[in-house]
Amino acid sequence: MPTMTPARAGEFYRQMYRIRAFEERAYELYMQALLIGAIHSYQGEEAIAVGVCGNLELEDYVLSTHRGHGHCLAKGLDSGSMLAEMLGKGTGVCHGKAGSMHLCDAGKGLLSCNGIVAAGLPLAVGVGLSIKQRGTEQVCVCFFGDGGINQGTFHESLNMASAWKLPILFVCENNQYALSTLSQSVTAVERLADRAAAYAMPGRTIDGMDVEAVDVTAGELIASVRRGDGPALLECVAYRFRGHSRGDPDFGPYRTREELNEWKDKDPLKVLAGNGVLSTEALREIEAEVDREMDDAVDYAKESPAPEPAAAFEDVRGA
To answer: Is 0.90 topped by the overall pTM?
Structure first.
């Protein structure tokens, strides 16, 4: 029985479809050889970013990964400025210096995306310590993949965050594969969130393809973190529909077409659209509005000027 209001369901669908449409346009630009550097698609995992970030305030902080476009959009970044950045344009959110994997907008609380696996975890400890020392009611959300849970930084960061009772929600996006390595084949525990017990913090494992489940559970944990109860670990079990990056096929050699199709039956957009809260007409209206936004974003990115050569020396601090 659906529990969401039409307004809430509509906002969830809009945000998830926005991420899906953005990734499709980014891929088209990549195939046109217009994108600078690599691209890692978030398609299939939209419910995680939307469900988690929907519980955050503007002043709350997010640390992201190489697969960070969804987090950026869910935290409020502008799609046109993001695409312009990925095309290396001067109007990009980082003035053409960051590309796809290092997007950031401190004004929106998106501190950084990071191309190094699990590198955001120790940064989150620093952010959480800053919040605690300043005595604000902010929280920090740190996203990372299942490939990062076996890195030493995971253990060090969760241990310090718990010892100091820092206001951090660690979100593991378990999309089954660390590039081509099946997570279950290299991790001793079945539920990755069970590792939270070693650091005396709450650990929850949920269906990361269900935006309502993510919203409710993330909301509970974020409220606890914000109250000063200490950090928590949330594992969202999901699946990426595209390959690891655009140099990696969507299926084979390490996963089958059948496996991919089974997970696509659980598509978070399909799940929400099929719960009966929103009419077909409402869904199509949302999609049309978002498609127009993405058309404008692509035009803006393509038409934006390249950075001036002198801009290479801006935002650079000397030794």
So the answer is: yes
